[in-house]
């Protein structure tokens, strides 16, 4: 299923059942609308971003992919929702998976640094991003063999996620819009792209923090420092072992 194009309109608002005015562009209440922070004009790139979105991610109140789609010029970001993808899903949306011009943002032992891949990648390029929790993204990758033939790339991350109102799995994890923004900055050789695409995220976080939200530590830090009081699941324990982090007793 392909998600319909989101169009930027700063003046259109509707009311929900409680009478609150809702922005038709970002679907946020008017008071917490981040649309004024979107790039204007939208950003043009020498390729396209394809987002494979897990169905559960679309339901989140604080999702970041709409910021990416609305920040790029029309047609440069395609969102396809599902849990499993094959070549037909890409073909029906007009997406060619040419290995010379396509990369998948996904970590792994055989992943290349995106700076290295950027030099080798043909233009116009296609960059594929899986939008979901780590467990969801891992499941999508494992049951979608068409993705296994693509060059995998990873990012060099300096600092921490700016999405401070949501708990990240570890210090090296980013939100989807941050991942795309950094990748596009490298592929386009333009650091301003990251700044422009992340402006709505900063607006969202600033508003939430000013109205009672707190800065979240990543899960690994919370667990290693004994601050994480909930039961740790098997997937998280496996993830911690890979990172060499010991879980303190509750």
Rg: 19 Å
Most strands sheet: 6 strands, parallel
Low-confidence parts: 1-11, 218-225, 243-250
| Fraction of residues in H or I helices | 25-40%
Query: Which structural class fits the helix and strand makeup?
Result: alpha/beta
**Largest sheet strand order:** 4-3-7-5-8-6
Described by its quaternary structure, the protein is single chain
Approximately what portion of the residues adopt beta-strand conformation? Answer: 5-15%
Structure description:
With 250 residues, the protein is an alpha/beta fold. The protein contains nine helices and eight strands. α6 runs antiparallel to α7.
What keyword list fits this structure?
250 residues, alpha/beta, 6-stranded parallel β-sheet, two-stranded antiparallel sheet, 8 strands, globular, disordered N terminus, disordered C terminus
Topology of helices and strands:
Blueprint (H helix, E strand, L loop, with lengths): L12 E3 L5 E3 L23 E7 L1 H4 L6 H7 L5 E5 L5 H5 L10 E4 L6 E2 H7 L4 E7 L2 H9 L8 E4 L21 H12 L4 H19 L8 H6 L9 H10 L7
Parallel strand pairs: 3-4, 3-7, 5-7, 5-8, 6-8
Antiparallel strand pairs: 1-2
Helix pairs in contact: 6-7
